[in-house]
């Protein structure tokens, strides 16, 4: 099968590999669409998660079931499916506490196992979701990123009637802003750098200057220290910051201000079983999440796809790689 393999920093290479064989509890999927995540770009540039190389990247995928392991009963050949890339062990202390998304032995497509930038991939059956026929494969590939964004809304608390500030105009910032409006926020403000991307968030208020001490919830949706400080400065008393996008390097926090203002900072990593809600969101005509996919690029033109996702924020938002 054809695949894209990371062989070193900034060395994503097309290769030919054997088609994987599913284990008893796994499903073999023929990839029909896979979307490029910002984290894929980080993996290529610096490999922050320490992926053992060489390895096939990609974790946002949808396709057609080709074969099922002996223990898999809920899927059959020809079914349309999407996947969640996170594979909790089910046995560690965090899984036993109900926090499978924070599993101590977590598996993940594109990190410790073959990813979706390939003609075929396997995934454990409990992390596979059947897709209705009317959902396109590129849209279905957004199942997990939308679930992650739903986790950001969950970590924000009850935002109905509240003021929300989203910093970041990429795909995640866009989805989070839409979901905040869906959750009943009275006002959603978004800050970013690209007019094209900022113009693709219906119902949100694009701000040129960041709010100060006036929002209930700020959501960090870009990996930048200055954005973190913009979020902190925007919070009113008892405001909450949701750290959705990771910052690898430490940033100083004014604990005096946090104390006297009773501010909260919460993390947001993966999602707590939001797959069903995510599937509902993919079918919600008001959210209209399909418009996030600005480009569908055939696998043969994969270099163009990564160029668009990496360098053309002035014309691209979410880029899907498609397979015949």
Notes on the protein architecture:
With 324 residues, the chain is an alpha/beta fold. It folds into two domains: 2-141 and 288-322, Quinone Oxidoreductase, Chain A, domain 1, CATH 3.90.180.10; 149-267, NAD(P)-binding Rossmann-like Domain (Rossmann fold), CATH 3.40.50.720. 25% of the residues lie in helices and 28% in strands. It contains ten helices and 18 strands. The protein has helices at 38-46, 93-96, 137-140, 143-156, 171-182, 195-198, 225-234, 255-261, 275-282, 302-311, and strands at residues 2-8, 11-16, 26-35, 55-56, 60-68, 80-83, 86-87, 107-108, 120-124, 128-130, 163-167, 187-191, 205-206, 215-220, 235-243, 264-267, 293-298, 318-322. The strands form four sheets. Strands 3, 5, 6, 9, 10, 17 and 18 form a seven-stranded mixed sheet that branches. Strands 13-12-11-14-15-16 form a six-stranded parallel sheet, with helices on both faces. α4 (143-156) crosses α5 and α4 (143-156) crosses α9 (275-282). The two termini are 13 Å apart.
Low-confidence stretches: none
Query: According to CATH, what is the class of the largest domain?
Result: Alpha Beta
Helix and strand string, N-terminal first?
EEEHEEEEHEEEHHEHEHEEHEHEHEHE
Q: Mean pLDDT, nearest integer?
A: 97
Radius of gyration based on Cα positions:
20 Å
Count of separate DSSP helical elements: 10
Summed up, the domain count is 2
Shape: globular
Look at the helices and sheets and give the structural class: alpha/beta
């Amino acid at each position: 099968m054809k695949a894209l393999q990371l062989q070193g920093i900034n060395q994503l290479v097309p290769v030919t590999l054997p088609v994987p064989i599913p284990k008893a509890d796994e499903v073999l999927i023929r990839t029909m669409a896979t979307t490029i995540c910002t984290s894929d770009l980080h993996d290529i540039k610096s490999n922050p998660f320490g992926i053992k190389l060489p390895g096939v990247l990609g974790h946002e995928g949808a396709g057609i079931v080709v074969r099922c392991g002996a223990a898999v009963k809920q899927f059959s050949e020809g079914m349309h499916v999407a996947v969640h890339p996170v594979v909790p062990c089910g046995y560690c202390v965090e899984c036993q506490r109900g926090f499978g998304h924070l599993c101590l032995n977590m598996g993940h497509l594109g990190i410790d196992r073959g990813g979706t930038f390939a003609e075929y991939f396997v995934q454990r059956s409990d992390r596979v979701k059947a897709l209705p026929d009317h959902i396109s494969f590129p849209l279905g590939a957004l199942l997990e990123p939308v679930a992650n964004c739903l986790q950001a809304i969950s970590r924000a608390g009850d935002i109905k009637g509240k003021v929300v500030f989203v910093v970041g105009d990429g795909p995640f910032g866009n989805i989070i802003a839409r979901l905040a409006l869906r959750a009943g926020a009275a006002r959603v403000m978004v800050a970013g750098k690209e007019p094209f991307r900022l113009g693709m968030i219906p119902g949100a208020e694009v701000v040129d200057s960041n709010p100060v001490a006036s929002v209930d919830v700020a959501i960090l949706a870009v990996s930048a220290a200055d954005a973190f400080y913009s979020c902190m400065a925007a919070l009113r008393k008892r405001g909450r910051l949701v750290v959705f996008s990771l910052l690898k390097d430490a940033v100083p926090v004014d604990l005096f201000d946090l104390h006297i203002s009773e501010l909260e900072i919460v993390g947001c990593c993966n999602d707590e079983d939001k797959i069903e809600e995510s599937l509902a969101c993919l079918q919600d005509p008001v959210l209209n999440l399909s418009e996030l996919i600005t480009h569908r690029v055939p696998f043969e033109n994969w270099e163009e796809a990564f160029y668009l996702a990496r360098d053309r924020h002035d014309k691209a938002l979410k880029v899907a790689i498609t397979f015949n």
